[in-house]
Amino acid sequence: MKFLIRFLPKEYQALLVLAQRIVSSFDTKEEALEFVAVVADSLKSGHITVAEWSRIGSKAGIFKTRGKK
């Protein structure tokens, strides 16, 4: 994968690396797939609303409290 990423523009490289890190932080494959589905659903309209950002953040674990999942 790293080999192919080198051929992309820098901004796309950074986005792909970020996406890989987010998805790899999940405990199970199902959690990762659910997160990807939420993001894909949010992007259908071409822009993401505040509510959709909240949903994405929740799935990514941004809103977790310390020590809890």
Commentary on this structure:
- The protein has 69 residues and is mostly helical.
- The protein has helices at 2-5, 10-24, 29-43, 50-60.
- It is globular and about 35 Å long.
Radius of gyration: 14 Å
Class computed from helices, strands and strand pairing: mainly alpha
> What number is the mean pLDDT?
84
Shape: globular
Low-pLDDT stretches are none
Element string (H = helix, E = strand):
HHHH
Helix and strand arrangement:
Blueprint: H1 2-5, H2 10-24, H3 29-43, H4 50-60
Helix pairs in contact: 3-4
For the structure shown, list the relevant keywords.
single chain; 69 residues; mainly alpha; 4 helices
Write a concise synopsis of the structure shown.
The chain has 69 residues and is mostly helical.
